[in-house]
Design brief:
- The chain has 699 residues and is of the alpha/beta class.
- Strand 8 (365-367) and strand 9 (370-372) form a beta hairpin.
- Helix 3 (37-63) runs antiparallel to helix 8.
- Bound molecules: ligand C2E and calcium ion (2 copies).
- Residues 580-581, 601, 637 line the site of one calcium ion (CA).
C-alpha cells in the first residue's frame, strides 16, 4: 500500500493542497462575525477553494503515477466529483467554522469534512473509468478517512485556538493549520489511490477525452490562479474592513473631542474623573480637579473678533496640555478648562499646579502681530475631602467663582460655605415653582407722577412674592433665580396676562390706568414674546396704548439688531417701550436714536446723589436734555426727598416715581385711592384717567 501511495504524493500536489487549505481558512474567518448574505458568499468561496485544492492535488498526484496504460478524464464526471467535494466542504465548514470555539462543533465539522474528502477521492477514482474496474472501498478508505479526520480535526481546532487565544500569531497559526489540512488531503488521497490498485487495471475509458497530463497542466494553472484570486479577495476585504474600522474609531474619538482645541470634551472627561476617583477609593488616595475660567476673554473676542478668540482658546489649550504632562486636560465649554491630577496629589501639589497654570495663561497670545492678554481664575477641589464625584465639577465651579469675584488671576480651594447659597437657591427655586402654580405671586403697582402737575399718570407693575415661611421675598432675589433656572418664561407669561387682566378690571371700574411692566433679557429672547403680549391684550380687550414695556439699558444695548427687531414688533402692536435704569449701561447715541422707544428712566443711583453730588446733577440734567433732543419722555425713579423732587422738576423731568409720592401698593389699594380718595392726599389722579379711552389723550 505504501509503495502504491508514495508516488502520488508530489511536491506540486502538496503546494496545491496547502494553498487551498490556507485560502479556505482565510475566507472562512469572515463567517464568524456575521451570518448574512455576504457570509454565504465567503462560505461558498471557502468551499470552492477547498474542493479545487482537493481535486487538483489528486489530479496532479495521479498524473505522477507510473501506470502501464494511458489515463484520461471525463469532463462531466470530473466536475461532478469537484461539486461533491465542494458541497461536503461547505456543509462541514458551516458547522465547524462559524463560532467554532466549541470543540464539539470542531469535531463534528472535521468528521464531515473528512467524509466529504474521502467520498470525493473515491468518486475521483471511480470517475477515471478504469477497466476491468476497481474492487470497491477497502480498509485503505477507512484508513484514509481516519487520517483525514485526524488532520482536519487538528487543523480546524488549532486554527480556532490561535484565533481566540493568540490572535497575534494568527498568520503562523493559519499556516500550521493549513499544513495539517494539506497533509490530511495528500495522505488520504495517497491511501485511496494506493488502495484502489491502479496497477492492476488495463485501461481508462476516458483516455481520449482529456488526457491525464493535459488535465494536470490545466488544473495546476487554473487552480493556482483561482486560489490566488480568492486569497487576494480575502486580503482586500481584510484591508477594507480594517480601514472601515479605523474610520469608525476616528469618528468616535472625534465625537468625544472638542473640535476647536482637540481636547477631550466634558462627556468623556466625566468618565475619566469617575475612573480616577474609583482608583483613589481603592488606594485611599486623592484626586485634584482644577477648573480654569479665563478672565478677560470676552473683551478679546469683542475687540479682536471671534476667529482670534478661537486662536486664543487653542493657544491656551496647548499651554495647559504641555503643563499638565501626565495629568489630563479637557475643555468644559466656552472659555473653561478642566485639569485633573489623578495620582494622589497633595494640596501643595494642586496649588503648585494652579500657580503654574496662572503663570502660563497670563503670557500674551500673539495674534496677527497684536498681543491679546487673558488671565485665569481657578477653582480647586480635592477628592474625597471636598465632596462626592457628582458634585466635583459644581464645587470646582463655586470655588472658581470666588476666585473670579476676588478680582481674578488667582486660584481658590473649595470650601463648604461656597455652596450654602446654592442650596438655598435650589430650595427657593422649588418654592417659586409652587408659588407660580398656586398663585402665591402678586403684582404691586407704584404710581408714576406727572411732574408739572403732580398728578398720577400711570403705574409700574412690580412682582411680589409672599413666601409662606420667609415672608415677602424681593424680586431682586427671585427674578435672577427664575432667569438662571429657566423659570422666567412662565413667570413673565403670568405677568403679562395678569397686568392685562388688571388693566381690564380697573378699566371696568372706570379707571383708565397706564401700566409699565419689566421685561428681562430672557423674556426678550423668547421667540413668542410679542405673540404673548398681543394675545393677552386681545384676551382682556385692552388698548395696547395702556401698556409700556420697561427694558434695562444694558439689555437693550446688548444685542443691537435683535433688540431693534423685537422693539419694532412690540411698537407695531401699539405698546410703548421705556429704557429702564438709564445711565448705568453703555448706550450708543446713534443706536439709541434707532430704537423705537418713547421713554428713558434715569437710574435711581443718580437721583439718590442729586442733592449732594454735582456730578449726579450734571448726569441727570444731561440725560433729561438728551431725552428731550431725542423727543423722549424722561422719568426719574427712586425720588425720596423734596430736594430731589425740586431739582428734577427744575431740570424739566416729565415724570417722577419714588417713595416720596407712593410706595408700590396692591391693585386694590391703588383702586381705593383713586376711587374713594383713600391714600396720600397731596396727589390726585389725572382726570383723563377716568375718561373714556382715546388714544390721543394717552400722554
Ligand atoms: P426696577 O425696575 O428698577 O424697579 C424699581 C425698584 O425700585 C422697585 O423695587 C421699587 O420698589 C424700588 N423703588 C421705587 N421707588 C423707590 C424709592 O424711592 N426708593 C427706593 N429705595 N426704592 C424705590 P423692587 O420692586 O424691589 O424691584 C426691584 C427690581 O426687580 C426691579 O427694578 C426690576 O428690575 C425687578 N422686577 C420687579 N418686578 C419685576 C417683574 O415683574 N419682571 C421683571 N423682569 N423684573 C422685575
Ligand atoms: Ca422698572
Ligand atoms: Ca429701574
Amino acid at each position: 500500500m505504501t509503495e502504491a501511495f508514495a508516488p502520488s504524493v508530489t511536491a506540486l500536489g502538496c503546494v496545491l493542497a496547502f494553498l487551498a487549505a490556507f485560502a479556505m481558512l482565510d475566507l472562512v474567518k469572515r463567517l464568524e462575525s456575521r451570518m448574512d448574505g455576504s457570509a454565504f458568499g465567503w462560505l461558498a468561496g471557502a468551499s470552492v477553494a477547498f474542493a479545487t485544492g482537493l481535486w487538483s492535488a489528486q489530479v496532479v498526484g495521479t498524473d505522477k503515477l507510473d501506470l502501464p496504460y494511458a489515463l484520461g478524464y471525463h469532463p462531466g464526471l470530473s466536475v461532478g466529483v469537484w461539486l461533491v467535494a465542494a458541497m461536503f466542504s461547505s456543509l462541514s465548514l458551516a458547522v465547524a467554522c462559524r463560532r467554532a470555539t466549541a470543540a464539539g462543533r470542531c469535531l463534528v465539522g472535521a468528521g464531515m469534512l473528512a467524509t466529504g474528502m474521502v467520498v470525493a477521492e473515491v468518486l475521483f477514482v471511480e470517475a477515471l473509468g478504469l477497466r476491468p474496474g476497481i474492487t470497491g472501498p477497502g480498509p485503505a478508505v477507512a484508513a484514509a478517512w481516519m487520517v483525514a479526520g485526524l488532520g482536519c480535526g487538528c487543523g480546524l481546532w488549532l486554527h480556532t485556538e490561535v484565533r481566540t487565544r493568540a490572535p497575534r500569531h494568527l498568520m503562523a497559526g493559519q499556516a500550521l493549520s493549513a499544513l495539517l489540512l494539506a497533509s490530511a488531503i495528500v495522505v488520504s488521497q495517497g491511501l485511496v489511490l494506493g488502495g484502489a490498485g491502479l496497477d492492476a487495471q488495463t485501461s481508462s475509458a476516458w483516455r481520449d477525452r482529456v488526457p491525464a497530463d493535459s488535465m494536470a497542466v490545466l488544473v495546476t494553472v487554473g487552480s493556482i490562479a483561482l486560489l490566488s484570486m480568492l486569497l487576494l479577495l480575502s486580503k482586500l476585504e481584510t484591508r477594507w474592513r480594517d480601514s472601515l474600522q479605523r474610520a469608525k474609531g476616528e469618528l468616535q474619538t472625534q465625537s468625544l473631542r472638542d473640535p476647536l482645541t482637540e481636547l477631550p470634551n466634558r462627556q468623556i472627561f466625566e468618565g475619566t474623573i469617575a475612573q480616577a476617583t474609583l482608583r483613589a477609593d481603592v488606594s485611599q488616595g486623592r484626586v485634584a480637579l482644577l477648573l480654569v475660567n479665563l478672565d478677560g476673554f470676552k473683551p478679546v473676542n469683542e475687540s479682536f473678533g471671534h476667529r482670534a478668540g478661537d486662536r486664543v482658546l487653542r493657544e491656551i489649550a496647548a499651554r495647559l496640555r504641555s503643563l499638565a504632562q501626565t495629568h489630563m486636560v479637557a475643555r468644559l465649554g466656552g472659555d473653561e478648562f478642566l485639569l485633573l491630577m489623578p495620582d494622589n496629589p497633595s494640596v501643595e501639589d494642586a496649588s503648585g499646579m494652579a500657580a503654574r497654570v496662572l503663570a502660563s495663561t497670563c503670557l500674551p497670545c500673539r495674534i496677527d502681530g497684536r498681543e491679546a492678554i487673558v488671565t485665569g481664575s481657578i477653582g480647586i477641589v480635592m477628592y474625597p475631602q471636598h465632596g462626592a464625584l457628582s458634585t466635583l465639577i459644581a464645587h470646582a465651579d463655586a470655588a472658581m467663582r470666588v476666585a473670579k469675584g476676588s478680582g481674578g488671576a488667582t486660584y481658590c480651594f473649595f470650601e463648604a460655605r461656597m455652596v450654602s447659597g446654592l442650596r438655598e437657591q435650589t430650595e427657593l427655586l422649588r418654592d417659586l415653582r409652587r408659588a407660580l402654580a398656586q398663585g402665591e405671586l402678586e403684582l404691586y403697582y407704584q404710581p408714576k407722577i406727572h411732574a408739572p402737575t403732580g398728578e398720577i399718570t400711570g403705574a409700574e407693575a412690580l412682582m411680589r412674592w409672599q413666601h409662606p415661611k420667609l415672608g415677602m421675598v424681593s424680586p431682586t432675589l427671585f427674578i435672577p433665580i427664575a432667569e438662571r433656572y429657566g423659570l422666567i418664561g412662565s413667570l413673565g407669561n403670568w405677568l403679562i396676562d395678569e397686568v392685562c387682566r388688571q388693566i381690564r378690571v380697573w378699566r371696568d371700574g372706570g379707571l383708565r390706568m397706564r401700566v409699565a411692566i419689566n421685561l428681562s433679557v430672557h423674556q426678550l429672547r423668547q421667540p413668542d414674546l410679542v405673540e404673548r403680549v398681543g394675545s393677552a391684550l386681545r384676551t382682556h380687550d385692552v388698548n395696547p396704548g395702556l401698556l409700556t414695556c420697561e427694558i434695562t439699558e444694558s439689555v437693550a444695548m446688548e444685542d443691537a439688531e435683535g433688540t431693534i427687531a423685537i422693539f419694532k414688533r412690540l411698537t407695531d402692536l401699539g405698546v410703548s417701550i421705556s429704557i429702564d435704569d438709564f445711565g448705568t449701561g453703555h448706550s450708543s447715541l446713534s443706536y439709541l436714536r434707532k430704537l423705537p422707544t418713547s421713554e428713558l428712566k434715569i437710574d435711581r443711583s443718580f437721583v439718590l446723589d442729586l442733592e449732594t453730588s454735582e456730578d449726579a446733577r450734571k448726569v441727570a440734567s444731561a440725560v433729561i436734555n438728551l431725552a428731550k433732543s431725542l423727543d423722549l419722555k424722561v422719568v426719574a425713579e427712586g425720588v425720596e426727598t423734596e430736594g430731589q423732587n425740586k431739582i428734577l422738576r427744575e431740570f424739566g423731568c416729565d415724570q417722577l416715581q419714588g417713595f416720596l409720592f407712593a410706595k408700590p401698593m396692591s391693585a386694590k389699594a391703588l383702586a381705593l385711592w383713586a376711587m374713594d380718595d383713600v391714600g396720600p392726599r397731596t396727589m390726585s389722579f389725572r382726570s383723563s384717567l377716568f375718561k373714556e379711552t382715546c388714544a390721543a389723550e394717552l400722554v
